[in-house]
Design goal:
245 residues; alpha+beta; Cytidine Deaminase, domain 2; 2 domains; three-stranded mixed β-sheet
Length: 245
């Protein structure tokens, strides 16, 4: 909303944004959490317009706890240069990692992407070894587009599987240049993964691969969404469906 008000006034050269929160449910909010993944994506978009690595300030209402960082640190790997990442990966995959990436690659065949021509596939692995995959589904009303990562998690959830331990993401595009870089989840998808990680209790491993598996980056959701906002910030244990002590 704050960015929207600035934009409505014709101002897009945003340098910094401060965030604070309070709740009537809890007397003390001791953690200065960062913005949710979806808001980070929004801030990141504006940083691309302004060409400024926007400073993000998180604070408790009493200003006793303050975090100071930038949007590029809050959304690692979002900013990529082709020259930096067109380097063959030296990562040696385990059998489960390889199978998961292959499932994500296969899923790109079913992507519905008539607008971006960017076919994304995702596959999740559960604790018992089950794999659930999906692809992105675009829409002429752009906001209705659904990313592959969220659909893959939804596919698993529909089968009653929420104990997700890994997710693989890959993409293929009509633009050959884009096929040489890894696909990382957007801010909204990171938020989605972060939520299910708090349910499963696993710091979900995220395998980001190009279509040929020449370039692979492996990170955890905690690494891709630092200072994350989730159920624990609301004092809720989603696994037990109860308030935290």
């Amino acid at each position: 909303m704050a960015i929207g008000k600035a934009n409505a006034s014709g101002t897009r050269d945003i340098k910094a944004i401060a965030i604070s929160s309070k709740s009537k449910e809890f007397d003390k909010v001791e953690i200065a959490s960062g913005p949710c993944g979806s808001c980070r994506q929004f801030i990141y978009e504006m940083s691309q317009v302004s060409q400024i690595d926007i400073e993000v300030i998180g604070s408790t209402t009493n200003k006793n706890h303050i975090t100071l960082t930038t949007i590029e640190k809050l959304l690692p790997l979002r900013k990529k240069r082709y020259v930096d990442l067109n380097i063959p990966s030296q990562i040696h995959l385990t059998d489960s990692q390889n199978l998961l990436i292959e499932a994500a690659i296969k899923a790109t065949d079913t992507a519905y992407a008539p607008y971006s021509k960017y076919h994304v596939g995702a596959a999740v692995l559960t604790k018992d070894g089950s794999i659930f995959s999906a692809s992105n589904v675009e829409n002429a009303a752009y906001g209705s587009t659904i990313c592959a990562e969220r659909l893959a998690i939804g596919n698993a959830n529909a089968s009653g599987a929420r104990d997700i331990v890994k997710i693989a993401i890959t993409s293929v595009s009509d633009d050959e240049k884009k096929n040489k870089i890894t696909s990382d989840p957007c801010g909204s998808c990171r938020q989605f993964i972060y939520e299910i990680a708090q349910y499963s209790g696993f710091d979900i491993e995220i395998l980001m691969s190009d279509f040929t598996k020449n370039n692979i980056i492996i990170k955890s959701i905690e690494q891709l969404l630092p200072y994350g906002f989730g159920p624990s910030q609301l004092h809720i244990d989603v696994a037990k469906n109860s308030l935290l002590d």
